[in-house]
Amino acid sequence: MLNRILDRRFLCIAAGTPLVVIIAMAVGEQALLLRLKAQASSRPPTPLTVRFNERIGTGDKTFEKQLVISIRSDGSESELRRGWSPVSGTIEERYTVRDMSARVRVAVDTPTASKTTYPLEEGHMRAILAKRNDCSPPQNAPSKQILGTTAYQVVRALPDPGNTIREAWVAPDAGCLALVERFTQQSNGQSVVMTERIATELTWGEPASTYFAIPAGYVEREPSAVMIERSRRYPGAPAGKLQVQDDAYRSANKK
Known about the structure:
By secondary structure, the protein is α+β, with helices and mostly antiparallel strands. The protein has helices at 19-34, 122-131, 223-233, 243-252; strands at residues 48-56, 63-71, 77-85, 90-99, 104-109, 114-119, 143-146, 149-157, 165-171, 177-187, 190-204, 219-220.
C-alpha cells in the first residue's frame, strides 16, 4: 500500500547509527516535552507534505534514506522513512502517525508487520499544535527562500560530549519545519557533517490519507517484542531488550 505513495527512487542504508542521531532524536523529544504546558495557537496548522533526503554518518558508516513528513489541518502528523536494509536485503519502511482525531501515536514497523500504540494526552495534543505555530525567527537571523517559502537560520550548540552544532533553516509558514538541517562535530580539528536532512519537494494542501493509514492485520507489540520479531524473521538482526521503552509503553497503556 505504501509503495504507491512513494517514489521508486531509493537510497542505500549501511549498518550503524552514530551517536549524533540519538542526540538529535533526544533533542527533538525534549523540545516536545518542554512545550507540554504551552497553549495551542488559534491559527490552524498548515496542511502540507514535505519530502527530504537524509544522510547519517560518515565514511563506511554512512547511510541515506528518504523521509516524508505530512501535516493535516487538524494537526495530525505522519513521519515516514524508507531505505535499504542490509539485514533484510530489502527496501524497508517505518513510520509514526500522531492522529489527533483518534488521540493516539502509532509507530508502524513494516518489516515485522508491527504497530506500537500510545495514547495522546491532552497536553501532548496541545504541544503538537503549538510547535507548528511557534518558531519566531531570532533577531537579525539570516533568511533565504527554500522551495518557495522563507526559512530562517538557527544555529545552536548541543549539550553533548561531541560538541555538536545544529544548523537549521526553519520555515514558519511550512509548519515550522526545518527544511535544511545539519548536525556537525569536530574531528581532527575539522568540522564534519554527521547528519544532514535536505527538503527536496514541498506540496501544499491536505496530504494523502495513505500516509496516516495503519495497515490492517498488523500486530500490536511493545518495543522489545518488535526487535524480537525482527530477529526471528531476519536472523542477522539484533534482538536487544528495550526495558526502558517497554516500561514507558506499559505505563502509557496501563498494562
